[in-house]
Each structure stands twice: as C-alpha cells, then as structure tokens.
C-alpha cells in the first residue's frame, strides 16, 4: 500500500491524499489551492496520477480547500464515486456552483480589462461543470462501512462544520486515520469531535498548531458590541462566511435578545448562500448542538433578504439594526454595498468574527487604515472596527493534543502533520514530540509513504 501527499502540506489549502493498493486507488479530499498566487497556480498543474484510474474520492467536508477541486476532476473525465456525509453533499451543492460562477465572472473581468497574460483567460471550471459534478456525490451516514475495492472506509464526526468527518481507512489489518479539520470540544454550534479509534498512521491537521484560542467569552463580546452600537444609534455590520459562521451568529443574536442581554433590533441576513445554508443546518439539526426549535427561532426572527432589491432597500433603514452579509473577509459580496452607506458613520460598527487573511479588506480595517477601496472608490473608515474572538471552528494545539490523549491511539502510532502553515507545523511537531511518545513527522508535498 502507498500514500502520496498531493496537497495540504505546508499550507492550509489544497488537501489531497492518494491511497493506493495493488488494485485500488482512492483520493481522500480533493481541495482547491487558495490564497497566494504561487499556490493557486497548482490548481492548473496536471495531477501526478491518471484520473480515470482513481476508483473513488472520499471527502471529509464541504469547505473548498477540501472539496473544491472535484469539478476539475469532473472536467477532465473523472466519473467515479464521491463518498461523503449527506450534510456535506448538501453543502457542496451550494459551494461548488458558487465557486464556478465566481471563476466565470473573474475570467470575463480579466478578459474585458485585459488583466491576464492570456488572450482568452478561462475559468478553472464554470458553474455548469460544478453542477454536473454534483451528480457524482454518494451520501453516506457516519459509521457506515463503505467498501471501495480492497479498501474499507468509515466516516466519524469531527465537529468543525456541518457534516465534517474524520476518515478511517483500512486495508487488511492496517488502519489509517485522516483527521480532516478537527472542531473544538466546547464549540457553540458543533458537537465535539468523536474520539479516534486505534490507527497505525494518522494524518493530523495543524491549522492552529502554534496558537491558543483567546479565553474571552464570545457571548459577552458580542453583547457588548451590540449594546454599544445600539446606544450610539448606529448600524452593526457583520461580514460573515455563509456556511457555519452565519448560522452561529444568528443563533447567538437571537438568544441574547431572548435573554434580554441586548435590545431587540431587526436582524437582516443579506446573503442568498447563507440563507440556503441555514435551511441545510435546520434540516440536519441532529448533527449539531442546536435543536429544531432553536433553528426555528432564527428563521422566525431573522429577516432574510434574498433579492438584490431587498438588499438595496436596507440603505433606507435609518434606525439601529444588524446586517449579516458576505463575505467574511470583506473581499466581495453584499457587505461592500453596505460599507458604502455606513462605513463613514462614526455611530456604526463593523464586527469581524473570523480570521482575516493578510491583504484583505478585513485585515486592513483591523490594522486601523483610514480608508479602503471598494468598487474603485476610496471610502473613509469612521465606523468603529471590532473583532469577535473565540468562534474558530478549528481546535488549537492543546485541544488537539487532548483529543489525541483521550483517543485509543497506541504510543507507536505514526503521525504526519498536514494542513498547516510551516510555523504551525513545526510548533505542533515540537509540542507533540515533547509531550507524547508518538512518532511525529511533517508531510511533504508529493511525498510518498510505503505502507504495509
């Protein structure tokens, strides 16, 4: 048996791991490279494998850095099974077509303004291809045994986001664990990750391998920001990721209002994708901490603005209110249009609730810039800029170590760290080597492990 690292090494994107026996070839995760241009170029390079000989793909979860390359495989002829949890399959139905649509729009923009070195810039894949690729998805339940050739797979809950799983693969008596992205034990929205069974080899994510989560109470932080903005008579703008974060924010705001800790202000969810994702979270509520009644409470109290006209109409709402809109790092989406109306108003607040990658508008605003550029126009930043800590869906290095210690792993288990930036991987490796007896290594890009 052989394992090849095709992505998710020394970076937090592009996760792909090829597992092969003499008769079976399976890809675990199939993610897009995102972020730096030198990484994104890998999306255009041919994979070092023959696509038509891959028997199946197993997805840990729907985030594009783990699933978003599937339409590329489809475009090049792959027609095998894509096995994943049913909730993940539903979320892929939102994320893949949206990814294709954005790439189409970018290609047209680059062509129109001659911003590409190519005469006819193309999308990596388009919306139609993404929708066609969805037909390959074969939903399964957690702990359901799946046979692919001479390999067996099961998925077990990993927290993190709806449908997210750790994958356990077995060939004869040898067992491999793929952690996927591992959630936090006390996450407000998602259940704690299920403990791992005994495995001979574990590929472990290390996104937060060099960081601890802030100890501040996110509920108190959010209440303080809402109360401050309402007291000033302003509008609270919350840039948000559509899947996971938008649903969590709705729940927290509705709960705080019900408990009388913040005033009852209108809450607008101004993101068609987030609205659709909220419906999926409601349908699969048994896989997260919120009850059906709690999901209903958000549906009943949050105002969903689906159309562009409904979104534009919010500009005439002068009384204090809350708008949740994409995107989470203010790189695009409807939040930018709300910035045009409210960013120059000192009574208003922009609240970022997740990590802001370097160079994004979100990162610049948190750094204290006096103006940002939106749609070719420089906007003065006079609104208060705040950050809500503690909502990350990733376990930090101590939470990961506690998860490993509570699992039934043997001290002889080999661990390969993946899905982390170089500093995080090195710090996580050092910590595990000092505190455990595991054989700890760091995965290399296109590195190959020969296995029993």
- The CATH topology of the largest domain is Metallo-beta-lactamase, Chain A
Q: From the 3D coordinates, which CATH architecture of the largest domain would you assign?
A: 4-Layer Sandwich
Question: Would you identify the regions where 5 or more consecutive residues have pLDDT less than 50?
Answer: none
Strand runs, count: 22
Biggest beta sheet summary: 7 strands, mixed
Q: CA-to-CA gap between the ends? A: 6 Å
CATH class term of the largest domain: Alpha Beta
- Number of spatially distinct domains: 2
> What structural category arises from helix and sheet content?
alpha/beta
What does this protein look like?
This protein has 452 residues and is α/β, with parallel strands linked by helices. The chain folds into two domains: 2-211 and 393-450, Ribonuclease Z/Hydroxyacylglutathione hydrolase-like (Metallo-beta-lactamase, Chain A); 218-387, Rossmann fold (3-Layer(aba) Sandwich). The protein is built from 14 helices and 22 strands. The strands form four sheets. Strands 6-5-4-3-2-1-22 form a seven-stranded mixed sheet. α4 packs antiparallel against α5, α4 (86-112) runs antiparallel to α8 (272-283) and α7 crosses α9 (292-301). The chain is globular.
């Amino acid at each position: 048996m052989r394992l090849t690292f095709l992505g998710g090494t020394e970076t937090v994107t592009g996760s792909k791991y090829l597992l092969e026996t003499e008769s079976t070839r399976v890809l675990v995760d199939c993610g897009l490279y995102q972020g730096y241009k030198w990484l994104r170029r890998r999306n255009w390079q041919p994979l070092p494998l023959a696509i038509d000989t891959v028997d199946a793909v197993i997805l840990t979860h729907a985030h594009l850095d783990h699933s978003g390359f599937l339409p590329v495989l489809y475009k090049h002829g792959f027609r095998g099974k894509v096995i994943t949890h049913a909730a993940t399959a539903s979320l892929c139905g939102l994320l893949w077509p949206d990814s294709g649509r954005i790439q189409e729009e970018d290609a047209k923009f680059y062509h129109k303004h001659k911003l590409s070195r190519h005469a006819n810039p193309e999308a990596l894949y388009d919306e139609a291809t993404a929708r066609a690729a969805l037909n390959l998805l074969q939903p399964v339940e957690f702990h359901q045994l799946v046979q692919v050739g001479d390999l067996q797979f099961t998925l077990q809950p990993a927290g993190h986001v709806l449908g997210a799983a750790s994958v356990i693969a077995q060939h004869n008596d040898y067992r491999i664990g793929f952690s996927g992205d591992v959630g936090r034990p006390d996450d407000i929205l998602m259940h704690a990750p299920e403990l791992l069974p005994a495995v001979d080899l574990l590929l472990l994510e290390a996104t937060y391998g060099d960081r601890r989560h802030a100890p501040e109470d996110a509920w108190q932080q959010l209440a303080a920001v809402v109360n401050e903005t309402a007291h000033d008579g302003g509008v609270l703008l919350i840039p948000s990721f559509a899947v996971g974060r938008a649903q969590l924010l709705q729940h927290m705001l509705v709960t705080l209002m019900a408990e009388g800790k913040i005033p009852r202000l209108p809450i607008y969810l101004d993101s068609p994708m987030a609205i659709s994702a909220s419906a999926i979270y409601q349908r699969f509520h048994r896989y997260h901490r919120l009850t059906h009644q709690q999901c209903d409470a958000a549906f009943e109290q949050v105002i969903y603005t689906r159309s562009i006209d409904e979104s534009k109409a919010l500009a005439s709402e002068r009384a204090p209110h809350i708008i949740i809109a994409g995107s989470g790092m203010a790189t695009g989406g409807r939040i930018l249009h709300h910035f045009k109306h409210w960013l120059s108003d000192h009574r208003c607040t922009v609240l970022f609730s997740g990590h802001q990658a370097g160079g994004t508008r979100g990162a610049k605003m948190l750094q204290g810039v006096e103006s940002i550029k939106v749609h070719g126009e420089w906007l003065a930043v006079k609104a208060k800029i705040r950050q809500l800590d503690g909502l990350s869906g990733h376990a930090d290095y101590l939470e990961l170590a506690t998860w490993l210690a509570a699992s039934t792993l043997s001290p002889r288990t080999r661990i390969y760290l993946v899905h982390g930036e170089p500093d995080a991987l090195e710090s996580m490796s050092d910590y595990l080597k000092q505190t455990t007896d595991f054989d700890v290594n760091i995965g290399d890009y296109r590195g190959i492990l020969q296995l029993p």
